[in-house]
Amino acid sequence: MKLPHRRQFLHLAAGAAALPAVSRFAWAQAYPTRPVRIVVGFPPGGGADITARLIGQWLSERLGQPFIIDNRPGAGSNIATEAVVRAAPDGYSLLLVGSYNAINATLYDRLNFNFIRDIAPVAGIEREPHVMVVNPSVPAKTVPEFIAYAKANPGKVTMASGGMGTPSHVFGELFKMMAGVDMVHAPYRSRSLPALIYSIDATVVGKMIWRVAAVTASARGDEVFELVHGLGL
Questions:
Q1: Are 168 and 191 spatial neighbours (Cβ–Cβ below 8 Å)?
Q2: Distance between CA 95 and CA 40 in Å, rounded?
């Protein structure tokens, strides 16, 4: 993961803050003077949480103040987003943003915020591939084999995701359209693999499209079988 340069981070953070009474340059030189929270729209243990903790540690070491991870799971990250929108625009409440934020703008008719208007960009911190994995009990070891299996079992294969509107959900729906298969969507509040592996019967979990970070951190080699690597946003 390519991390932003300290000067770049301070410059962008200063530009995003609305402090008309104070010189933005002077404010940037002093920032931060107290702990900063990074709000994450998913529970601990998943890819988003891992990313936030890595960047939080990096920033803490370089800026001399704690960067505290504040997990606010639910509604495909909308709860976390609204918490930051309602916070003071002083640079001390940061939001970990992902493609799910853009997706939510089209999925939800009534949100209590306008993402483009209410959230200011600070820095890009990562690009991520996704993988398609199945439970080892599924008799498919390649994508063509899985498509054939799903077509032979319409409505019986569960497509697990990290929640409505998350990339794993959108990728799954796109896969269903392109492959012409009928799978049941099972949304979860967590994007952490244990929430799926251990809460669903092994014979029911058919397929998951998941972040590489979550798969690597959460699953042992005998728990999932990777069909394809490289789906991404």
A1: yes
A2: 6
Superfamily assignment of 129-232 in CATH? Periplasmic binding protein-like II (3.40.190.10)
- Whether pTM exceeds 0.85: no
* CA distance linking residue 151 with residue 13, whole number of Å: 50
* 6-118 CATH: 3.40.190.150
- HEC string for 47-110: HHHHHHHHHHHHHHHHHCCCEEEEECCCHHHHHHHHHHHHCCCCCCEEECCCHHHHHHHHHCCC
Residue with tokens 């639910």: 74
Residue carrying the six token digits 């492959």: 179
For 32-49, what is each residue's pLDDT tens digit? Answer: 999 999 999 988 988 889
